């Protein structure tokens, strides 16, 4: 009998389907894995208010019950976190990782929604830094999140990204990917990978139009899928970069505010 490879996402719901738990499960399927999910928040977007995001955290006890259900079958082959919503939820996740001796842990430290520029919950950001980074196989902050976690503030160059990656690694994460994406100036999308000893720069041409809603979630989920399938971390990150680029190229314009990635792009392009 074929071994079932199991993956887990602990994240929020994006009803537009591009990001969040929906993106994670679609990506897990593309990687040939069986996806579990624990819902932490429900996010809605209001087209009458310029696509303003409303975030509704799930009670931490319900998150804990979901994780108890999932881990009744033992640890999964790899897992990721996304939007966690509250300090109590972060603590529940920390406890579940420790109690179940979970390995291959991808922490996507979601602090803002697409199009927003303020940390949703500063206390949760601090809890992710203090409680989850030391458990992370890899952490995948974007420029904004890397600036917050590292304490450097606004990052505007590859050298800034390298320094942020080094400081975040010092917080306990075994590997760090700082995502430059379209936020970094220039015509190249640049990510910096750091393993505590060496830096790797991943580059690709920026894609226009930038149908990149959900790209960050999808990237972290793709790394999770790669680790679950036994890829070494560097290979998992490199493949995830290719996977997301294909998803962006295959994306579409949903409305005047957002264009999501299409998670089957990598498979269809092959």
Describe the fold and architecture.
Helix 7 (215-228) crosses helix 8 (233-249). A six-stranded mixed beta sheet has the order 3-2-1-4-5-6, with helices on both faces. Helix content is 38%, strand content 21%. The two termini are 27 Å apart. It has nine helices and nine strands. The model has no long low-confidence stretch (mean pLDDT 93). The protein is α/β, with parallel strands linked by helices. The longest helix has 17 residues, at 233-249. It has a single domain (6-269), classed as UDP-N-acetylmuramoyl-L-alanine:D-glutamate ligase.
For the record, what CATH class applies? Alpha Beta
Compressed to H and E, one letter per element, the order equals EHEEHEHEHEHHEEEHHH
CATH fold-level topology: UDP-N-acetylmuramoyl-L-alanine:D-glutamate ligase
Total separate domains: 1
The largest beta-sheet arranges its strands as: 3-2-1-4-5-6
**Describe the biggest sheet?**
6 strands, mixed
> How many β-strand runs?
9
Give the number of helices: 9
What is the residue-mean pLDDT, rounded to a whole number? Answer: 93
Strand content: 15-25%
Q: Please tell me the CATH architecture by its name.
A: 3-Layer(aba) Sandwich
CATH superfamily: Ribokinase
Q: Nearest-angstrom radius of gyration? A: 17 Å
The gross shape turns out to be globular
Helix content: 25-40%
What would you call the structural class?
Answer: alpha/beta
């Amino acid at each position: 009998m074929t071994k079932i490879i199991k993956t887990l996402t602990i994240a929020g719901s994006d009803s537009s389907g591009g990001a969040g738990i929906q993106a994670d499960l679609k990506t897990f399927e593309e990687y040939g894995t069986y996806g579990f999910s624990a819902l932490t928040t429900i996010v809605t977007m209001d087209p009458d208010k310029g696509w303003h995001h409303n975030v509704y955290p799930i009670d931490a006890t319900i998150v804990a019950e979901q994780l108890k259900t999932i881990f009744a079958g033992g640890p999964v082959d790899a897992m990721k976190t996304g939007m966690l919503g509250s300090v109590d939820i972060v603590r529940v996740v920390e406890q579940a990782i420790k109690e179940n001796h979970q390995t291959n842990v991808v922490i996507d430290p979601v602090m803002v929604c697409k199009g927003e520029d303020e940390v949703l919950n500063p206390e949760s950001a601090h809890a992710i830094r203090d409680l989850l980074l030391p458990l992370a196989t890899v952490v995948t902050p974007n420029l904004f999140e890397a600036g917050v976690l590292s304490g450097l503030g606004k990052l505007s160059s590859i050298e800034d990204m390298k320094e942020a990656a080094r400081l975040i690694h010092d917080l306990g994460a075994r590997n760090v990917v700082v995502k430059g994406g379209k936020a970094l100036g220039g015509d190249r999308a640049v990510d910096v990978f750091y393993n505590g000893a060496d830096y790797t720069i991943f580059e690709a041409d920026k894609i226009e139009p930038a149908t990149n809603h959900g790209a960050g979630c999808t990237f972290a989920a793709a790394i999770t899928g790669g680790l679950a399938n036994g890829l070494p971390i560097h290979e998992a990150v490199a493949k995830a970069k290719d996977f997301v680029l294909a998803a962006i190229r295959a994306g579409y314009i949903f409305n005047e505010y957002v264009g999501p990635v299409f998670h089957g792009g990598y498979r269809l392009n092959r």
